[in-house]
Amino acid sequence: MSMRTSVFCRRANFTSADMRESDFSGCTFNGAYLEKAVAYKANFTGADLSDTLMDRMVLNDANFTNAVLVRSVLTRSDLGGAIIEGADFSDAVLDLPQKQALCKYASGTNPTTGESTRKSLGCGNSRRSAYGSPSSPLLSAPPEKLLDRDGFCDQSTGLCDAN
């Protein structure tokens, strides 16, 4: 299966698809389902993968050069050896070990969004790196303590931190 520039795969369902070595360069995938798909050595150069569900994917050696992965869910996916120069992962949800591995070699700036790959991954920002995306705190952060020691929130600050 080979796809070229200007191909639209919006909201398409690629669940469990065999996408090995396919060319999706420039493809628009907004809102597509790619969970459990195998995209070993697939080419996503310049693709728009915003808001896609990419859970449990095999993405080893895939090329994400200048791709936009804003708000994508990549939990339990394997991006080992993936090329990510210029990719924008802003508000994407990745497992912490995967994010740390990508930060070791993340570089470039996305030409479409102007976002640095390192910044979009939260590289070097311990709080963001520790818990993932601020847009999905329930998926990636420890639960907040809801009440103070007396069972009430502090109305002046809005904080509900138990002692």
From TrEMBL:
Gene3D superfamilies referenced in this protein's UniProt entry, alphabetically: E3 ubiquitin-protein ligase SopA (2.160.20.80)
Low complexity: compositionally biased ranges: 133-144
SUPFAM superfamilies, alphabetized: Pentapeptide repeat-like
Listed Pfam families: Pentapeptide
Region called Disordered, residue ranges: 107-147
Protein name stated in the entry: Thylakoid lumenal protein TL20.3, chloroplastic isoform X3
Species name: Dioscorea cayennensis subsp. rotundata
Classification of source organism: Eukaryota, Viridiplantae, Streptophyta, Embryophyta, Tracheophyta
